[in-house]
Amino acid sequence: MGQAAWKGFALSLFDYKTAKFVVAKSKKVGLLYRVLQLTILLYLLIWVFLIKKSYQDIDTSLQSAVVTKVKGVAYTNTTMLGERLWDVADFVIPSQGENVFFVVTNLIVTPNQRQGICAEREGIPDGECFEDTDCHAGESVVAGHGLKTGRCLRVGNSTQGTCEIFAWCPVETMSTPTDPLLKDAEGFTIFIKNFIRFPKFNFSKANVLETSDKNFLKTCHFSSKNLYCPIFRLGSVVRWAGADFQDIALKGGVIGIHIEWDCDLDKAASKCDPQYYFNRLDNKHTKSISSGYNFRFARYYRDSNGVEFRDLMKAYGIRFDVIVNGKAGKFSIIPTVINIGSGLALMGAGAFFCDLVLIYLIRKSEFYRDKKFEKVRGQEEEANVELEANEIEQELPEDKPPEGVQQNEHPQELAQSGRKQNSNCQELFEPARSTLLV
Q1: Residue 428: inside a domain, yes or no?
Q2: Are residue 338 and residue 219 in the same domain, yes or no?
């Protein structure tokens, strides 16, 4: 790159560009510009302000507390347990209502277990043996029920047996339930009380109707028209979650109860209503050995001799997870100004796009480009250019005087002769005029 090019590049750094408005009589580009303006305007009015309510200040730091209660009784008569009446103290775990609670719908009971020596249950790989050396004394049975004593117990003439263990005997039997024990659980009721607060706006509310009627909660039931009665029938909740009660009561499952609070605080507080959604959270579509939901617990006793024993219970049932989410919004000038400014910036982007189409993409783009961009010199630069032109004219050689004219001729005469010569030159270059002969 030569010195002149570097000089031109350096001088171009001090150029200033200013906008020049050109009215382009192009229907295509004009229509495109109006369509872009209308689209951006509709986006701002409908999506940004009406749907998203971006003119509001938003608080998502929801503070929530949940209190739950289950009510109902069930009657069973089985060979293992006999006649028995079940109430909330028997089938609700934990007994004090929280946002996660469990309702027992089926049981497998292993009664009267005492600590002693017995055979490990069949079907546990680490508990199987062929001889005593396979049962190392003092080792626990992996996925089993106790500690190995070092003996291998075989039944009859069988070559394979199970290790003898020290455990709660008899060990739990491996049985699969065929029918839910607490069929009446479908009619149980769940009371879910939810308190919420949005700290930014100091707004609080609950999902229970504020009334002095003491019988309100004893007689009402939740429905889409009665959102402030949080009394839910257990069977209805399971059905709303898309599950079959008899199926989920047999092997258990997990139900999610979602409470959504979407509050527009520019309106009255009574318009801030809870919305409920129910769905099954466990993988109900996968048929595997881990499907369903169950756990074990025991109830301990002492006999007349002071020896401890227990009843082991494997409980199947429905776990309920109460999940609370929400947000609140209120008008604020700051997000309003920010979003209006963003809309104006989008308008400018639309004009920029139309400029690109006008000066680069249409057929007459070169014509419009020449009209849009114009180089203008400053006054000082124009004076310098004129001065340089005058200097060049002075450096050119003077014309010799015509023959017959002396050097000391009067200047006025020289000027007149010069004008005559110019007139003669003009006559030479003027086009020939046609003469009309009459």
Answers
A1: no
A2: no
How far apart, in Å, do the first and last CA atoms of the chain sit? 70
Same-domain pairing of 308 and 321: yes
Residue 164 lies in a domain: no
Residue 187 lies in a domain: yes
Instruction: Please give the tally of structural domains in the chain.
Output: 2
Sign of CA dihedral 139, 141, 145, 150: negative
Report CA-CA distances (Å) from 8 to 3, 120, 382, 383.
9, 96, 17, 19
Together in a domain, 252 and 364 = no
Query: E strand or H helix at 381, and its extent?
Result: helix 379-395
Asked if 350 and 320 sit in the same domain, the reply is: no
Domain encompassing residue 261? 63-120+171-327
Q: Which of 23, 309, 327 is nearest to 203 (CA)?
A: 327
- What's the farthest any 2 CA atoms get from each other in the chain? 162
* 252 and 355, same domain (yes or no): no
Q: Is 130 helix (H, G, I), strand (E, B) or coil?
A: coil
Determine how β-strand 92-93 pairs with β-strand 100-119: antiparallel
Q: Mind giving me the DSSP string for 38-63?
A: HHHHHIIIIIIIIIS-TTEEEE---E
Is-above-0.90 flag for pTM? no
Structure tokens at 332: 């604020």
Q: Say if residue 355 is in the same domain as residue 239.
A: no
Cβ 177 vs Cβ 108: under 8 Å: yes
For 74-140, the DSSP string reads EEEEETTTEEEEE-HHHHEESSS--SEEEEEEEEEEEEEEEEEEEEPPTT-GGGEESSGGGS-TTPB
Quick: pLDDT tens for 127-173. 999 999 999 999 999 989 999 999 999 988 888 999 999 999 999 88
CA gap 309, 116 in Å, rounded: 11
Q: Is residue 163 part of a domain?
A: no
pLDDT tens per residue, range 87-125: 888 888 887 777 899 999 998 889 899 999 999 998 899
> Tell me: the pLDDT tens digits for 203-257?
999 999 988 888 898 889 999 889 999 999 999 999 999 999 988 999 899 999 9
Closest alpha carbon to 201 in 52, 335, 56: 56
51 shares a domain with 175:
no
Residues 292, 210: one domain?
Answer: yes
